[in-house]
Structures
1.
Amino acid sequence: MMKRSRLFMIGSLTLAIGACTKPPQTAVQKAEALLAQMTLDEKIGQMTQVDSEALTGREQDIAKYFLGSVLSGGGSNPSKGSSSQAWKDMVAKLDAIALQTRLRVPLVYGIDAVHGHNNVDGATIFPHNIGLGATRDPEAVERAARVTAEEVAGTGIDWTFAPCVAVVRDERWGRSYESFGEDPGLVSTMGAAAVRGLQGVDLAAPSSVLSCTKHFLGDGGTTGGKDQGDTRADTATLRKLYLPPYEAAIKAGTQSIMVSYSSWNGMKMHARHDLITGLLKDELKFRGFVVSDWAAIDQISPDYKTCIEQSINAGIDMVMIPHALAAPPPDAPPGTAKLNTYSDFIGDLKELVAEGKVPTSRIDDAVRRILRVKFELGLFDARKGSPELFAAIGSPEHRAIARDCVRKSLVLLQNRNRILPISKQAKRIGLTDKGANNLNVQCGGWTLDWQNFNGLTLKGATTILAAVKAAVSPQTQVVYSPDGTGLAACDVVLAIVGEDPYAEFKGDRQDLNLDAPDLQAIATARQSGTPVVAVLISGRPLVIDALLASCDGVLAAWLPGSEGRGVADVLFGDAKPTGKLPCSWPRSMAQIPVNAGDANYDPLFPCGFGLSYE
Ligand code: BGC
Ligand code: BGC
């Protein structure tokens, strides 16, 4: 662990606050003393967060603009690949530049570790939140978050944009899998558990990372499940459905909160003083800092300066700015608007302060919050991590915890003729379709890449196919046929079907029926009279009447991540299914949205449903 010399800073602080004053002790006092030394440029720098990819080739801008934070958005991987070493080196290099500045204020470094340290090749990948919601086990969620924190800290990173505490009310939404479920109580319990796991008992510990509870407020309630859309609800409904997880996360100690791209009743959340300052900071007494989402303030107005004025005055403390160049990329469609850059932001905000449109007191409040959290994180003493934490990334112990989460997340929807559990002594087991031998499908979006389309190799991961092979007796023949042909004379066929990976708005769907090739492969496999068990890999409920009719067993496995063995544990009876649906399962597209508590509630399976073995 690299120790930083604090002498220079403490010395100058003492000078600044006068010889008779005692040196600052608490994080609050230290932040106050440091703030008192800062110029406006230094303060605005702290409020600026830039994407690592945008800084490629202009890393010295970190020192030039006194940047307070760098993030790596989905796909902004180190130029030297995605190994844990490459990540650790990149973060250390960028942080060292921040320490060249006059006041040596360290970076707080953000990343989307949303199901394990998912940008790192070789990390332990956990089920996405929807699967964790199905475990109904907050202790398992806390353990998962602890492992995630240790792996994140292992690479020297101190901040993850998690947990997402969206309450998903419409499964057409492409971010449904980032939600623990449709029930505010369930999401509150799981979100608070995740905060505890990430931040640990002491935020300053080398293995604790800052959590970022997101996306405030009402992201899961947009009309039609449209990502970044509009949540139309009266105040009472907004508070009842979407606020409880924030109250729980604040109680659990979350020290940062990200604002949602979405709007409430037609007005962008990023401009809402009533909710960010009024509700979150004044009423709920949130003491941490509020960060904007990726270029999200840009959506407030066509005039960037107005966007900055409104968002900062609404109460946003740090602004996420992904772009370095004003010109849109050469392949952008004609007419693509100019991109707003961090130098635009910094210049405009400075002007706004000079013009009196953003009060200095607002700037000071923002910077005070950011600095206090940096002190509480212990960043002025050392970066996160240790050789031990680095070495434990993707360790067998961590994977065992993820495997346990997978096991507990599986929801048994149908088990005709007690087809499950399958005997490990079966003579011949068939496997078909896209999810059987495909880590992209098994992990879903936000895995080494934002959308995670194809060709994912992930060090140490186990596919469901490999897990089945490892589970059965040496005499059992396991036959894999992607299209379902050649599976005659099998005792059982496992059809691993579901969704291709996606993230955010790219996953918004009007049609949640299974793909035709999936259904075709099952029909082909069935021709020989073989019973079929469908393992559904999906980020949300799909329309499955055809599947229920054609398969004896149906197991909802969500997006299980790197530990395919957890799926095999349940298929072969080493563990009984205990998962319960975290959301209602619709009968048809026409029935969506369907949520517990609706008048005439009549889903295919109610929220909370889940069979087990005798
Ligand atoms: C980034 C993501 C980000 C998304 C927002 C992508 O290019 O990689 O991190 O969430 O843009 O639209
Ligand atoms: C997403 C956030 C994410 C951020 C940084 C945004 O597009 O909405 O959830 O944390 O990008 O990658």
Note: The domain at 410-591 is CATH 3.40.50.1700 (Rossmann fold).
2.
Amino acid sequence: MKRFKGVFTALVTPFDESDGINESSLRKIIRYSLNNGVSGFYVCGSTGEWPLLTVDERKRVLEIVKDEVKDSALIIVNVGCISTKFSVELAKHAESVGVSAVSSFPPIYYKFSFREIKQYYFDIADSVNVPLIVYYIPSFTNVEMNIDSLLELLEHKNIIGVKFTSMDLFILERLKSLTDKIIFNGFDEVFLAGLSLGADGMIGSTCNFAPEIVVSIYDSFKAGDLKTAYIYQQRLNKMIRDILEFGVIQAIKEILNLAGFNCGNPRKPLRTLTSDKRTKLLSLIKEWDIKLFS
Ligand code: MN9
């Protein structure tokens, strides 16, 4: 369990001209993160557009990631679906591919009771021999869980942690203090705050284009240099504020395209940026000081 720490890229899923998975672009994005110090990858999460992918595409993306990463970094894959049946199918596939952990958001759409949600997680955790990480992201799922509910999920011995994508860092701190489980900070904009309250690392979308900045926050914090960590967090947050109005996925794909990664556009119904928006984004990122554009 001690391996699960540091900075994990929440990978985008690149598409080609015919709206299929762009394998060469995906490999390039992975290499860029690896060359800039990340510890692992989170595959087919929110940033990876999982709701817009078929189950077969999700399997294919994971196979490409594994083939590129091999054993040089950790791989966590979101196997979440609404139906336990499909989540278990994806979890078993992930186990056969060879991942470090599987992960899932709670089932959505019907208002499932906590008992049903708990059973969903336990069914996945019981179905495979790889650990499971709960993906807590109430702003997207509308499933709020309190400290006690999250602790109840963490009682399962195969549920080893939480990807904590909420601004309520009080919950993060309590989970970390009351258990020996792994907690990943999920909102990049509060990474340093999450670290200071006990987070083991982060899983974030900004690592696709600025891995060196995110890794510097982590490394400076670990070295006890809070001042430097804060300066890197401020640099990251300026960029996050710049991209939020365009939509995170749209903006990140545009940034990567500008840098020659050829990752296409988000899939419909997500909108592609209009030319006005693209011009505005371009003018904002001219000010950025990141390796990608150096
Ligand atoms: O997976 C990402 N969460 C979402 C993590 O996209 C919902 C974050 O990295 C955010 O994109 C980022 C910007 O808000 O913190």
Note: Residues 10, 45-47, 137, 140, 165, 186-189, 203-205, 240, 248 surround 2-(acetylamino)-2-deoxy-D-mannose (CB under 6 Å).
